[in-house]
Write a structure and sequence with these properties.
The longest helix is centred in the N-terminal third of the chain and has 13 residues. 22% of the residues are buried. Helix content is 33%, strand content 41%. The protein has a 4-stranded antiparallel β-sheet with strand order 2-3-1-4. The chain has a single domain, classed as 2-Layer Sandwich (Alpha-Beta Plaits). The chain is elongated. It has 103 residues and is an alpha+beta fold.
């Protein structure tokens, strides 16, 4: 797979938007969508329900290690959600646009 989406959860909208902007500015991602979500999870033995913002990062699979390292270096969570989802296929013109906007 040449392309992937990276899913990341963040505590705040401003933080997510700033991180998204840096990923795009550094040409690690062609596009990042920031969406409000409610996360229900277990942490340190207790169930938590928290508002978060999900980043959907569109990038090339070969750039995933750099995207992960960038997020890990800048994220505030002890264990941030960073999940890579392969893109099997897509609109050719969109994938070409991604190629043009990712180093």
């Amino acid at each position: 797979m040449k392309y992937c989406m990276v899913l990341v959860a963040c505590a705040g909208k401003t933080f997510a938007e700033n991180l998204a902007g840096k990923l795009v500015e550094n040409r690690l991602a062609a596009c990042v969508q920031v969406q409000p979500v409610t996360s229900i999870y277990t942490w340190e033995g207790q169930v938590h329900t928290e508002p978060e913002f999900r980043m959907v990062i569109k990038t090339k699979s070969e750039r995933y290690p750099e995207v992960e390292a960038f997020i890990t270096a800048h994220h505030g969570y002890e264990v941030p959600q960073i999940l890579c989802v392969p893109i099997e296929t897509g609109l050719a013109s969109y994938l070409n646009w991604m190629d043009e906007n990712i180093n």
